[in-house]
Amino acid sequence: AVVSTQSTGDGRLSALELLNMLIGRLPGPVLHEFALMFFMGLSAVVISDEDNECRKAAGMIVSQLVRKSSTELRDKVISIVDNWLTNKKVKHRYLGVQMMGLLSDAASHKQKKVFVDQLTSVIVNHCTATDSGEESATTVRDQVLYEAIVNVLKLTQGSKALPPQVVDKVGELLVYPHQWIRQAASQLLGQQLANIGETSNDKATALSGWCEGMLVQLRSDNILMEQGRQITKNLVWLTLHAETDGSYQRKNIVHKIVALASTEASQSPKITTKREIALKWTAGVCKVLEQQQVKEILPVMLTVVQREMQNTDCAEISSLACEVMDYLRTRYGKDTLSVMLVAAGRLLAEKRSKRKREAAITAIADPAAHAKKKLRANVVKKEKRKEKVKLLKAKQYKKA
């Protein structure tokens, strides 16, 4: 009650610190009498307080309270959280998921297994849930799903594998509309891949779906930094374990990633996220594959490295490309790499000539579409010239 009556964040934080000190000093019987009251009040702070520091402090106090509680009291708290998890109101489910994450710190190994089963049920039910008519229900549902995934990752860390029901939903989660959920799904996939054995026929379909999900994430224009790292790791694993034939082929994955990096270079030269991922992915794949295995795909991968080495607009991406090239030279030798570079140059020349032929055919077959394309290209060139002039003026201003 004291916490909720404070109008400022500092006031509520001071009240929480006082409560934390009180819980630490109360004798066992007294704490047992008031523990549920403390738990309910702190839960309200965790779910509804506007101040992030207050929510964190309340969460830490809940963890301490549960650790100091008796087994009987802990079971009562877990029962309350179970009721929240299965409640019709999505905000109650959100509270239940958050509380389960806090309770897991003080839970036994057996209880953690029960928590994983309950959170798995939450993930399965919220992947395809429909609006319940509540205000901001969709947003809260996304938060429920995100917290459930994060807690499953936390509880299964170090274990051999994720629950089968969660693994079945990874493909859906990888393409979920919410950015944070896609990032958490990438981490789920990374954990699953770290514990999976060699590729077999029954796993090929799942791997193909996961690979498509990762490529969908790579197509996004808003890739988070941590998500980018996880995408790189996952794509390296999936490329290494791809098939030589069938629908899930290594060369198809390589061509798609290179195409996405090339599209970013031509359409969004200021953004380098996809090209950074492509360069790091190239180094990661070549670190494991031997010369004979990489012979077919390395010329394609080198097209990105070669282009970015000559990038004068971004020193950082150019430096990264040079580092990757140095590593490849050390890994495969100068002679082998020279042959691959010639092959990569040939590929680029073929692509350019193909584009020119297609442009010439379009100019004859559909003059109006060709004219529109040229106008768009001219607009892009003008914008680039303006940007270069601005950069030159800025440099001159700095020197002055």
Number of helices: 19
Low-confidence stretches: 131-137, 198-202
Beta content: under 5%
Counting DSSP E segments of at least 2 residues, the number of strands comes to 0
Distance between the termini: 62 Å
The succession of helices and strands, N to C, reads: HHHHHHHHHHHHHHHHHHH
The profile of the biggest β sheet is: none
- Indicate the mean pLDDT: 83
The value of Rg in angstroms is 27 Å
Helicity level, as a percent range? over 70%
- The helix/strand class is mainly alpha
Outline type: elongated
Description:
With 400 residues, the protein is mostly helical. Helices cover 80% and strands 0% of the residues. It is built from 19 helices and no strands. Helix 12 (225-240) packs parallel to helix 14 and helix 16 crosses helix 18. The longest helix has 33 residues, at 367-399. The termini are far apart. The model is unreliable at 131-137 and 198-202 (pLDDT under 50).
Topology:
Elements: H1 2-5, H2 9-25, H3 28-48, H4 52-68, H5 71-85, H6 90-103, H7 109-127, H8 137-155, H9 164-174, H10 179-194, H11 201-219, H12 225-240, H13 250-267, H14 273-288, H15 291-294, H16 298-309, H17 315-332, H18 334-365, H19 367-399
Features:
single chain, 400 residues, mainly alpha, 19 helices, 0% strand
In short:
The protein is an all-alpha fold and 400 residues long. Helix content is 80%, strand content 0%.
